[in-house]
Design a protein that fits this description.
Blueprint (H helix, E strand, L loop, with lengths): L6 E6 L3 H11 L5 E7 L2 H11 L3 E4 L8 H11 L4 E6 L4 H9 L4 E4 L4 H26 L19 E6 L7 H12 L6 E5 L19 H5 L7 H7 L1 E2 L6 E3 L13 H11 L5 E5 L6 H9 L2 E6 L3 H17 L6 E8 L7 H8 L3 E6 L5 H7 L13 H22 L6
Helix pairs in contact: 2-3, 6-14, 9-10
Length: 411
């Protein structure tokens, strides 16, 4: 940040009086410039793209869209912009949701002038730093992949989390094979294991590494593309980039959910697809991964405990702040001999099953034991399970295309 460079601020609040009061508070600060004001969340999104502020002061309670959802949409489009949430709601849940949406700070109304100015200056410094990193990464010769490719930063990537509230439903198998199916020369895929204690996604590719997600999560404030590339495993046959779980369960104790959210947000700027393999327990880390995800592939099987747990999770989505439009519902290991059909489940849940993946013990289980995702075999893609995986990949691509057309659709 140059000595004469001002922090450009956008004020967002549904009350004109509040907007004017904040503007007056800031007008005597030589290093701060108020460049605009918005009265709604959608107006804030539009103005942020038009005015390119460094810092956005965002209220939570607004008539058309809450400030947390607006923050998430703005950060998806312009990750270098810093948002400070200012709200009368001071509960920990609001603060947590704001941080997971990408907010830099959280202040309760009315903030003191000292707290407000200090927060703006910290956020401004972060915005300038992030812009410098983006400019360096996109400079000619700065990265091996060019714009939007490996080694550079962009805003186009999508985070797809695979989750089931019941263990043993095949989430890791689906995650590894979805990553292989989506990977091609134009779309690099990163596969991230956030099962921090007993994650085994690297084993599905017969890979081992001394590096793990802990090496990046614990230094998430100071990442750059070269460091990420050094830690990621490149699977030779598929070219999928793998971020493995820590080698020792006790290493998970040092990793917080906020670090995982920020790491995934960073990875989406390097890779078009970030596939996340999650554990079934709703820990802070799991919730953070789900919160930052653009798409959640929710997995069930035909057994009653899995179905019951999925129902409980769907009932929780509103409280967790997860829009129904984010969820792709998948039935795995479908066996026609069992009298629980996809149609019955759709009727019971009033939710469409996007893809049904048939039971295929002859290819899926041996593939795991060999450390070779079954979708790597050309013959497998002609089998029922392989064709279903192709359908799942197509469903993900279609949803990504919908998000590209209207990023507000899922909010």
């Amino acid at each position: 940040m140059a000595d004469d460079e001002k922090i450009r601020v956008l004020i967002v609040d549904d009350k004109a009086e509040t907007r004017e009061n904040i503007r007056k508070l800031l007008q005597f600060e030589n290093d701060v410039e108020v460049i605009g004001a918005a009265g709604t969340g959608r107006e804030a999104i539009d103005l942020s793209g038009e005015l390119q502020p460094d810092v956005i002061l965002m209220d939570i309670n607004m008539p058309d869209m809450d400030g947390i959802s607006a923050t998430e949409a703005i950060r998806q489009r312009n990750p270098w912009m810093q948002v400070i949430i200012i709200s009368v709601q001071g509960e920990a849940n609001y603060m947590r949701r704001a941080m997971l949406a990408g907010a830099k700070d959280f202040l309760t109304k009315p903030p003191s002038i000292d707290d407000l100015i200090s927060s703006i200056r910290r956020a401004g410094a972060s915005a300038f730093h992030e812009k410098d990193k983006v400019a360096s990464a996109l400079a000619p010769g700065s990265g091996p992949g060019g714009l939007g490719g490996t080694g550079s930063l962009s805003t186009a990537g999508k985070v797809i989390a695979l989750y089931s509230p019941k263990g043993g439903t095949g989430v890791s198998t689906l995650a590894s094979n979805l990553a292989v199916t989506l990977q091609n020369d134009e779309s690099q895929v990163a596969l991230v294991d956030v099962n921090l204690q007993f994650g085994d996604i690297a084993i599905y590719f017969n890979e081992q590494s001394r590096n793990s997600i802990a090496d990046l999560a614990l230094r998430v404030e100071d990442l750059d593309p070269e460091v990420v590339e050094e830690v990621m495993i490149t699977h030779t046959a598929s070219r999928v980039k793998i971020l493995a779980a820590p080698p020792k369960p006790e290493m998970a104790e040092d990793i917080r959910g906020e670090q995982i959210a920020r790491l995934l947000d960073y990875l989406r700027r390097m890779y078009p697809y970030v596939i996340v393999d999650t554990p079934s327990t709703l820990t802070d880390v799991t919730l953070s991964a789900l919160d930052v995800s653009d798409i959640i592939v929710l997995v069930t099987t035909q057994d009653i405990p899995a179905i019951a747990n999925v129902r409980t999770f769907l009932d929780l989505t509103s409280a967790l702040g997860i829009p129904q439009g984010n969820i792709l519902f998948v039935m795995n290991r479908y066996d026609r001999r069992i009298n629980i059909s996809p149609e019955k489940l759709e009727e019971s849940f009033n939710k469409q099953i996007a893809v049904t993946i048939p039971l295929d013990s002859r290819s899926a289980v041996p593939a795991v034991n060999r450390g070779i995702p079954f979708m790597l075999g050309n013959r497998a893609r002609t089998q029922p399970a392989g064709r279903a995986m192709l359908s799942l990949a197509e469903a993900v691509r279609n949803r990504v295309a919908e998000l590209a057309e209207d990023p507000l659709e899922i909010i």
